[in-house]
Amino acid sequence: MASGQMQKMPEFVFATCRAGSEAALKREVAARHGGWLTPAFMRPQLMTWKARSPLREDFVLDAAFAAVTGFSIGMARSAQEVVEKMPAQVSAVHVFPRVVEEDGVPPEEWARMDEVHAQISAALPREPTSPWVLDVILGTEAEPWFLGLHRRGPGSHPHPGALPRITLPAEAPSRAWLKMEQALAWLGLDAPGRLAGCNALELGSAPGGASWALLQRGMKVIGVDTGAMDPRVLAHPNFKHLRTTAGDLPRAALPAQIDLLISDMNLRPGLVLRYVERLAAFIQPRWLILTLKINDADVEAYLPTFLQQLRRFAPGEVFARQLHANRREVTVVSL
Ligand SMILES: C[S@@+](CC[C@H](N)C(=O)[O-])C[C@H]1O[C@@H](n2cnc3c(N)ncnc32)[C@H](O)[C@@H]1O
Prior knowledge:
This protein is of the alpha/beta class. The chain has two domains: 12-162, VC0802-like, CATH 3.30.2130; 176-334, Rossmann fold (3-Layer(aba) Sandwich). Helices cover 27% and strands 24% of the residues. α2 crosses α3 (107-123), α4 (176-187) crosses α5 (209-216) and α7 runs parallel beside α8 (297-311). The longest helix has 17 residues, at 107-123. Residues 173-174, 176, 203-211, 224-227, 245-247, 264-267 line the site of S-adenosylmethionine.
């Protein structure tokens, strides 16, 4: 088998999602691929669709309400069955739970994943040059393992299940710490020292969980919010608070260039994009991390339009994903 070449193309695609987002994911896929992809199988946080015509190897189910997407290649109950079902060589095996709470996966559940990972690793040879990653999704002990394949790409999450093994520390100023850390892991910016000395501007920074995460990584952070910042963030020598709104932000208060532009403002996405576009024109960020609040059905339906709008001025490719720590929102990044 040549590296990365599929012996037989699968007929089904799968997606995992955040708890409670199954219906939004189903609507999103129906809006984009309805008539071609038909819903086939649905469990909490895992769905599949059958394609009416052959899938191409380079097809990517690009859905903002999905955590991991790929081709569905069946079920297995043992490492040997996994080996028999493989349509292509893989470079990595990701084993992760189907059901994930918003605050992360407890260590005993990861231990169960690691046990299955070890069994499969012992039976399945890897091909480092293959673009394919095997996803093994575990439900209850009684359920067979669900198998998927996804292609590594700039928008795919490097961690199994889009789940870096981090949990919210008790001392974090807000849950936004976890959202920020999950987004950095997705962008591959979470390596120690990677962001040290870089600067960030966050619109909607109070009380400061995200800023706290970035300061701990050695960044210089400017936070824009009329709300009060956590005193520990405020006292940090690398933090500057501009106590104003994004619309009133004076250009003179900003450096000429910012590495990372963030928005976590609880405003409608259309307004967020207007502020971000105006700012991005003169601070030329290398990376964007925007949390877009999806507070009603209208905003959900307009999400593809917002992403198109963002693509006009974003610094690089744009990807949207609902991270497990997101609530009624999706994280949109550009890199
Ligand atoms: C979800 S909270 C942000 C949490 C924050 N990122 C953290 O790390 O703790 C949303 C924030 O957006 C702020 N906000 C809303 N409209 C804004 C605007 N026009 N300009 C700046 N901040 C705004 C609110 O004051 C609120 O603090």
